């Protein structure tokens, strides 16, 4: 009996297909953001009439035979905006550049993730960062197979990686930020010895909401 042999299963393909489909449908947006936003502050929204600088970040989901992980960066203390914070690779858009191209370029420049390795699946809700004046477009990308990254020291103090599975219980830590005599307590996601809070936590909260709907089944490889 002859016939065509079916293609081998590629780890992550089923999950990435579900993510791509889910990102075409209405996003949880503010409902998800509230999970990672201080309850005593008003909801983070994009105010009408305010002028923000455009920026983009890449939330890359890497699929390897032993599971899925997401790369994050720790910003140097010398950075003018968000020094020492944990974020996603990204930055401000160049003149004439699309948000998509900005996210891919910044990921390449900051952590050595080649655009050719990234299959963009869709976007999350944009996030406004009032302290630095940016409106950030959030792109979700799939990366298949082993990945050897090379962080750029000027903008990245350290590269961190974590599986989305470790945060299924939500932001289980609290980050306390002091401003003069006042202190602000914000929900935070632990990663290694650091915490993800603020705008990046909002992006992560929305992604994890969607991930819970699309996460791997026990029968799927890549776990």
Summarize this structure briefly.
The chain has 4 helices and 11 strands. The chain is of the alpha+beta class and 223 residues long.
Write a structural description:
This protein is α+β, with helices and mostly antiparallel strands and 223 residues long. The chain has a single domain, classed as Nucleoside Triphosphate Pyrophosphohydrolase (Alpha-Beta Complex), CATH 3.90.79. The protein has four helices and eleven strands; from the N terminus they run ααββββαβββββββα. The chain has helices at 13-22, 30-33, 99-111, 198-214; strands at residues 53-64, 67-74, 86-87, 90-92, 119-123, 127-129, 134-144, 158-162, 173-179, 182-191, 194-196. A hairpin with a 2-residue loop joins strand 1 and strand 2. Helix 1 (13-22) crosses helix 4. The relative contact order is 0.23. Mean pLDDT is 88; it is low at 1-9.
Secondary-structure blueprint of this entry?
Layout: H1 13-22, H2 30-33, E1 53-64, E2 67-74, E3 86-87, E4 90-92, H3 99-111, E5 119-123, E6 127-129, E7 134-144, E8 158-162, E9 173-179, E10 182-191, E11 194-196, H4 198-214
Parallel strand pairs: 1-7
Antiparallel strand pairs: 1-2, 1-4, 2-3, 2-8, 5-7, 6-7, 9-10, 10-11
Helix pairs in contact: 1-4
Brief descriptors of the model:
single chain; 223 residues; alpha+beta; Nucleoside Triphosphate Pyrophosphohydrolase; eight-stranded mixed beta sheet; three-stranded antiparallel beta sheet; 4 helices; 20% helix; 31% strand; disordered N terminus
What is the C-alpha radius of gyration, as a whole number of Å?
18 Å
Quickly give the structural class: alpha+beta
What count of helical segments does DSSP give? Answer: 4
* End-to-end gap: 34 Å
Total count of domains: 1
Main pleated-sheet profile:
8 strands, mixed
Named at the architecture level, the CATH assignment is: Alpha-Beta Complex
DSSP strand (E) fraction?
Answer: 25-35%
Output the CATH topology: Nucleoside Triphosphate Pyrophosphohydrolase
- Would you count the extended β strands for me? 11
Q: Order of SSEs, N→C?
A: HHEEEEHEEEEEEEH
User: Looking at the structure, what is the overall shape?
Assistant: globular
Overall pLDDT confidence: 88
Helix share bin: 10-25%
CATH superfamily: Nucleoside Triphosphate Pyrophosphohydrolase
Q: Which blocks of ≥5 consecutive residues have pLDDT under 50?
A: 1-9
């Amino acid at each position: 009996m002859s016939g065509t042999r079916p293609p081998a299963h590629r780890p992550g393909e089923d999950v990435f297909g579900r993510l791509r489909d889910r990102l075409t449908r209405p996003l949880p947006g503010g409902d998800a953001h509230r999970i990672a936003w201080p309850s005593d502050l008003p909801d983070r929204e994009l105010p009408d009439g305010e002028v923000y600088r455009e920026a983009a970040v890449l939330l890359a989901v890497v699929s390897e035979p032993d599971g899925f992980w997401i790369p994050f960066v720790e910003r140097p203390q010398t950075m003018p905006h968000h020094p020492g914070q944990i974020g996603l690779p990204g930055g401000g858009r160049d003149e004439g550049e699309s948000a998509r191209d900005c996210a891919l370029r910044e990921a390449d420049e900051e952590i050595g993730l080649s655009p050719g390795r990234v299959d963009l699946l869709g976007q999350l809700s944009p996030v406004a960062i009032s302290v630095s004046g940016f409106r950030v477009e959030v792109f979700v990308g799939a990366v298949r197979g082993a990945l050897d990254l090379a962080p750029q020291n000027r903008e990245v103090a350290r590269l961190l990686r974590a599986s989305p599975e470790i945060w299924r219980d939500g932001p289980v830590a609290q980050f306390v930020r002091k401003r003069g005599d006042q202190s602000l307590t914000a929900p935070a996601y632990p990663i290694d010895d650091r915490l993800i809070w603020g705008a990046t936590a909002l992006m992560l909260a929305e992604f994890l909401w969607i991930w819970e709907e699309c996460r791997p089944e026990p029968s799927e490889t890549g776990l």
